[in-house]
Amino acid sequence: MLMSVEKINAESDCGNWICPDIRPAWKLARVWGSEEVLLKAIEGDREFRFTEAQGYALRHFTGVLTVREVQSRLSAEFSRCDRDLVAKLVEKLIDLGILARAESYRLKAIAQWLEHPDGSWILRNPVEMTFLQVSREDKVAIELLGVSQDVTAEFTASEEKLYSLLELLAATGMLEP
Prior knowledge:
Layout: E1 3-5, E2 26-30, E3 37-41, E4 47-50, H1 52-58, H2 67-77, H3 85-95, E5 99-101, E6 112-115, E7 121-125, E8 130-134, H4 136-144, H5 151-154, H6 159-171
Parallel strand pairs: 1-5
Antiparallel strand pairs: 2-3, 3-4, 6-7, 7-8
């Protein structure tokens, strides 16, 4: 099972990105008699060895914490670890085929927009029975997903605000896998 993440590069600040939940497809195990950690596929026979620090970070890939939060916990646990270990770990997971780069985000075809009397908008997923209430500006940004190559250039708020919207959309089941 491939998880999707944005491309990491030197110019981007990936600290606010949520570390994807790898638990549905992968499990962690200690290598007996070693400080290494084994990441094993739940289905199939794929497995990869990681250092103890990388294994500690992987334990926090639960879809809840950001790269920055995992790095902070890692630094508190391991005083001599690379300050970019988590970002580099995401890249390594991409290279190994555990994570996949997300090229764009799209709303599910079943998502429906409803205008609220107060001027805000409600995005509804009738299948999963979830909804999200957003401002007019947020609606415009959401509609640009998958259409514009650089939503942040056309979206007047910060990149952080856009990632927050993406997190809400993902949590409410509004995005295509």
